[in-house]
Fold this protein.
Amino acid sequence: MKEQDLDHCYTVLSDALAAVGGEKASLLLATLSLSLIVRETDAKIVLDLIAQAGELART
Amino acid sequence: MGPDPQTGAPPLPVLIVGGGPVGLTLGALLARHGIASHIIEADEAYCQGSRAICISRRSQEVLAWVGADRPLNAKGLPWTGGRSYFRNQEVLHFRMPTEPTERFAPMVNIQQYFVEEYAHQAQDRFPGKCSVSWSTRAVATRPTADGVEVDVEAAGGHRETLRAQWVVACDGARSAVRDHLGLSLEGTQYEGRYVIVDIEQESSRAVERLAWFDPPSNPGSTVLMHRQPDNVWRVDYQIRDGEDPAEAVRPELVLPRVQSHLDMIGETAPWKPLWISAYGAKCLSLRSYRHGRVLFAGDAAHLVPIFGVRGLNSGLDDVGNLAWKLALVIGGASRDDLLDTYSTERLYATEENIAYAAKSTEFMAPPNFAFELMRQATLRLASVDPRVRSLINPRQSSQCSYPAAMLGAGLPGGDRSASPRPGDPAPEARVRTTDERTHLTQYFGGGFIALYFTDDRPVPDSIALRASASTQDVATMTVVRIARKGIPDATTVVDFIGEAWQRYGAHEGTLCLIRPDGYVLACWDQPDWQALSSVLRRILTGQALPQPRLLVGGDA
Ligand SMILES: Cc1cc2nc3c(=O)[nH]c(=O)nc-3n(C[C@H](O)[C@H](O)[C@H](O)COP(=O)(O)OP(=O)(O)OC[C@H]3O[C@@H](n4cnc5c(N)ncnc54)[C@H](O)[C@@H]3O)c2cc1C
């Protein structure tokens, strides 16, 4: 993904989170994660990313 | 506007309200074009305290048109990149575009009062063309049918009315002229606040932009540091949610936070605070920068957040755009609608500046929980996945391109596909000349320049009209031949490393017409001198100079 597109997605996602509010933010993020997961054919990649996100969230 | 009915004094050609960096630079630029102006400044001297420190390459170019680049670069600290840390770990190392052959560093750090001093001193190079009244403020502005009257009040309370053909409001964020005309800025104000502290401390650290997110010294905060000349550090930090900005600047709160951070990064020399203030990001602009005979520039026209350093830099770009246009209109070489293009072009630049600065602000001062959450995620992920690091990049000020259609020049045949395209900044190149000039941009800032890329073709006689001295350099065009080999002469510079040909996408015969402010007006793959003249005549339409004077070589 190009830097500009990444930038744009970042802002749109942040705005979407703000729009649903703090309580529903994790539901939005979980839904988005699932949508992205089903687009990935290699489960190993997904599992590694889940593990990585889990570790980073603990820091 | 005729002479004053009471005193018989003629009106000032230009009255500049506000002698900050933008107003003082405008006075010098107009003086270079032979246009007299008078500046009134409410304060008794240059600004104090913490203001702009990062001066872009483009700003250095604009200041160079009046020779103010020399003291600036002698004093300032050049830099090319920076580092961002999440806690103790480096998560971004960015570099701005830079070349060993460049004329100016992408950024120079220097206190704003030095910029004001150098711009003011530059006016002395053009004696009798610019004067400043300190401790004098505008208290009322009245547009008339053919000019503007401004009531001013000096320190002792003495009042008088100044009459001018044109007024340029450079009176900053709280512009009085804006109020006098009943205008207001529109846009967004952000919640997040920063404390800005300048401290004096010796350091041998490299000059870079340094940013720490959630540093152990100040958990949860963001700290920025920049070196300035005279052993001064600029330290900016984000204040905590809910913290009162007025409270947050109290030294007993500020000094321990700074000390803790200096300890963390190992800067152990003794230090003392010089200045403490609070700052909140704003993205605001007027809808138009021209209101009849009153023009707005700098913070009076627009306010952008400091992240990305676009405030002063965009103000200098404003007056770089305005000065030559105003000079042509006052000199009678152009119609006054040329000044409408000042407003449209600079409004376009403001939109771009605001878009970039708003993005930087979203990251540096997250406006709500969502941006805060995304920032937390980005900083963590950046340590393991370089692809997200661009999100942390501060998007430093860079020169904007204007849409070609905005130039109002009409482009018969001048619309080729290669870059640079009309509206782009004319690229820099290292060249060899017969004088002390070493770079192509040193030819800009005076009149129009035709860059003629050819190894051996002469400039046609019909163009080499006459090398007569012009009354107004800004209404002339200089042809600069750019050859790839040979030795330079009065009309030819040598592109000995090929940068110019490459950056202009040139072939034998390519012709590019450059505006006085260093923007490309039109380029032709084959030299169409007829078309070039007609583009020029669309700008130089006035009565005073029925046709452009064309010079070859010589002083630009
Ligand atoms: C903490 C901080 C850091 C910044 N860092 C950067 C940076 O690194 N890079 C950058 O590009 N920008 C930066 N900026 C923004 C930059 O300081 C401003 O954009 C810049 O000062 C604008 O210049 P100006 O001449 O338009 O306005 P000002 O500097 O505000 O000057 C306006 C002048 O008009 C005078 N005036 C006001 N009212 C009247 C009146 N009625 N009559 C006569 N005179 C009047 C004032 O006294 C003042 O001298 C920073 C700003 C702040 C606050």
